Protein: FtsP/CotA-like multicopper oxidase with cupredoxin domain
Amino acid sequence: MTVETLIVLDLLAGALATAGWLGAGAAAAARRAGVALALAAVALVATLARCATTLGLAGAGWWFAQEKITLTLPLAVAGALAAASIAGPRLLTTARGRRPSPDPDPAVLVPLFGAGYAAVAGPAVTLLAGYPAAASTVLVTLALVAGAVLVTWRVVAGSLPGARAATATLLAAAVAGTGLAFVPAETTDTGGGTASSLSHHGTTSLSGGGAASRSHEMAMPGMSPVSADAVAEVPVTSLRGPSTPEPGGTIRRYDLTARTATIRLASGKQVEAWTFNGRVPGPPITAVQGDLVEVRLRNDDIASGVTLHWHGYDVPSGEDGVPGLTQEAVLPGQEFVYRFRALQAGTYWYHTHEVSDLGVRMGLYGTLIVSPRPAEDPTGKTDTTGTTASSQVAASGELDLVLPAHTFAGTTVLGDQDRPIERAAASGAPVRLRLINTDNTPRRFALTGTTYQVAAIDGRNLNQPGPLDRALLRLPAGGRYDLVFPMPSTPVVLLVDGRPGLRLSPGATPGAGVPVADTSGWPEFDPLAYGRPAATPFTASSRFDRNFDLVLDRGLAITNGRPAYAHTANGRAFPSIPTETVREGDLVRLTVVNRSRETHPWHLHGHTVLVLSRDGRRPAGAPLWLDTFDVQPGQVWEVAFRAGNPGLWMNHCHNLGHADLGMALHLAYDGVTSPFHGAHGG
Structure:
C-alpha cells in the first residue's frame, strides 16, 4: 500500500470515527440506544483503523506520522476508551431492557460527544496545521477539545462546579496557542549581514522560526554547522557573468521587450497575452557551447515588472533574475542586461520571475537551446547573422523541433500552435523532439509509430539510453525530455495528454489521417530505471557537509504578511522558512518529503542535483541529474549537489501558484549579501 493511500485512509478513518461518535451521541440523545451502540462500534473500528494507518505511515518515515503519534491518535484513543468504558455499559443496559431510555444521561452523552471531538482533531490537525505539530498546535487542540466537552456538559447537565474558571482557562490557552502559531518568524533577510552573522549559533538558517524551524535546523548525522569564522562579504550584484566568450566562441546578442498584446492562435482564437517581442512563446535563444549570451530586457507596459530567469541553467547568481534577491524587477520604461557563458549544452527555457505564476501563464516565457561545440570545428566559431543552433543541426539532415507545451487561456499550445503541428521528415532522417513543460502541473506525452530513446533529461545526456515503445512520459512542471529516433517509413504522432500535438510523415506532404493510438493502458516511464549506471562524483554513501530536510504540506500559516491556508515547508511559509546556508565546496544532501495531496515539482536555482533515492530505493539506471523533480504525494526524494555556484538562490516548488502561497525559501552561500529587500522572487 502506498504512502499516499495510507494518508487518504487515515483521513477517512478519522472522519468516520468522528461521524460515528457524534452520531452515537445524537442517537443516545434521541433515546435510540441500539443505533447509538452500532454507531459507537463503527467509531471504535475506525479508531483501530487509524492505529493501523499510523503504524504504516510511521514505517514510511517519522514525517508522515509525527502529529498522529504525539497528539491526535493518543487523544482519539483516550476519547474512545472513555466512551466505551463509561457510556458503553449504560447503552447496553438500556438496549437490553427493550424500553425507551429515561431522560438523556450526561454520563452517556458527554463521553460520546467528547470522543467525537477528540476524533475530529485527527483530520483537523493534519489538514490545518500539518507538519510538525508544534507546542502551539498541541495547546490549541487540547483547549478546543476540552472546551467543547465543557460546553456539551453545560448544555446536557446544566451547572458544573468550577465551569466558569475552567472555561476561562481553556479560552486563555486557546488564544495563547493561536497567538504562538501565528507569530511570524524573523523574515529571511540577506541584506545587511552575512549568512554566518545572521544564522542562529551556526545552524542552517538565516532566519528564526520558532519550534518548527528549530526542528529543521537540528544537526543530523554527517552534518556540521556552518562555521562562525569570519567570511568576507560578497554582494550578489558582483556575481555577474563575464563580458567575453570562451576562446573560439562568439557573442550572441538578443533584445527582448515585454509588452501586452493580443495574440491570434493558429485556430483563430484571440487571447490577451503578456509577451516578449509580441509573440508567445518569446523568441528562441540559441547558442553553441562557449558562446557569450547577452540579452537586453526592456519593459514596455507590464505594470508589475518583469525579469528573466534561466530555468535549469547554472548562470552566475547576479544573472538569475530573481526580483528582490538578485535584482530589482524591471518596471515599465526600464531595462536590464543579462550576460552568461553558454557552458552547458542542452534544452532549457527562460521565464519571468516577477509575479511569475501570472506572468508565465500569460505568456512571458521562451526557450533556450545550447548546442554542443561541433566536433568538426575545434574552435566552435559561429556567427550571429540569424543562424540558430537548431538550424545548424537541421542542415546536417536532422529534424530538431523545440516543443514547449503551455496552457494558454485554457487552450493547450505546443510551440506556437494550438492545432496539431504537421511536419514532413525523410525516412531514415534523425529526429530530435525537445519537450518542455512550461505549465504548473505535470504533462503526459506519448510517442506512437516508432521506438525511440530519451537521450537527455533536463538538458543532461543520459548514459546508454535504451529503446522505448508504448510508454507514457510524465514530464514535471519545468522539466524537459529530449526524444531521438530515426524517422521510420510510417507516420509518427506525438500525443500531449492523449491528444495529437505533432504529426510527422515520411513523405513530402504531411497528412492528418493518422489514427490516434489508445495509450490509456501504457505504463509510465520511470527515469530512475532507465539507461545504464555509471560513475558519479559522489553517492548516497558519501559524507555530506550539510543535510537539509524539507517536509512539504498544507496548513494555516503567515505568508506575504497575512494568514493563509498556505503551501508549507517544515510547517512554515515564505518568508518564515529558514534559509539553507552552505559554503562553497560543501557536499549537500536535500531530502524532500511530500505529506500533502498535491504534486510538488521541486526546483533549486543555480544547481543541478543528483538523485540518490526515491522512497528509499536507489536509481537502477543511468545517473540522473535534474533541476526539477516531481515529488508526488507520499513520496520521499533524496538528492545531492556540490555547492559550486556562490550566490543567493531560490529553492521552491515550481507549481508557481504553490510558491506564491508560501512554498519557497532561499539557499544562501555564507558571506553573500543582497541590497534588495522585500520579495521572494515572484
Q: What stands out?
A: The first strand starts at residue 234 and ends at 235.
